[in-house]
Amino acid sequence: MTAETSQTLDRGLRVLKLLADTDHGLTVTELSNKLGVNRTVVYRLLATLEQHALVRRDLGGRARVGLGVLRLGRQVHPLVREAALPALRSLAEDIGATAHLTLVDGADALAVAVVEPTWTDYHVAYRAGFRHPLDRGAAGKAILAARAKPAGECGYTLTHGELEAGASGAAAPLLGVTGVEGSVGVVMLADAVPERVGPRVVDAAREVAEALR
């Protein structure tokens, strides 16, 4: 810690990170051991975070991330969308297909940014806010593939007709962005995705990831 930082705030943020990394919550004793501070300090940190709904404690006394974190998370989408738009515009214009940035939202894939090409006679209408199960469509399947493979082995995912009849999709996962799980992809009216589209989508996903770091 330096003179310009707050030790209490630092500890509070560390509590949130520890709770976010567990599905079953943590007790005061477990948090005390992980933080290297006494239980009284942990009680005070939890009480403050509970006042802001950032932490909740169940009947067994285990602390978990609270619903207040969701309200903060909603403000992240506009920032992510703004950072991704240049790469999405370039992708849409280059391929001549609708480009999108998709993030994980619970068990769903949620489109948070969409760019349609300006020069095509027709293209797939795809709107920000559209959601679908992670295991359907290229965007969600690319995210699941990234979960299952080491980062260096992730490429792109192709699908056809899974979300819209006659439409094909290609998507690549965002890699190396802390706290963001998502993919960049395109959707087009075609029986098959042209060969050059997959590598181009991977490049776009890399550009978006770099903009978010």
UniProtKB/TrEMBL annotation:
Domain of life (superkingdom): Bacteria
Key word Transcription regulation present: yes
SMART domains from the UniProt entry: HTH_ICLR
Lineage: Bacteria, Bacillati, Actinomycetota, Actinomycetes, Kitasatosporales
Domain annotation IclR-ED: ranges: 68-213
Domain HTH iclR-type residues, every copy: 6-67
Name assigned to this protein: Helix-turn-helix domain-containing protein
InterPro entries: ArsR-like_HTH, GAF-like_dom_sf, HTH_MetabolicPath_Reg, Tscrpt_reg_IclR_C, Tscrpt_reg_IclR_N, WH-like_DNA-bd_sf, WH_DNA-bd_sf
Record keywords: DNA-binding, Transcription, Transcription regulation
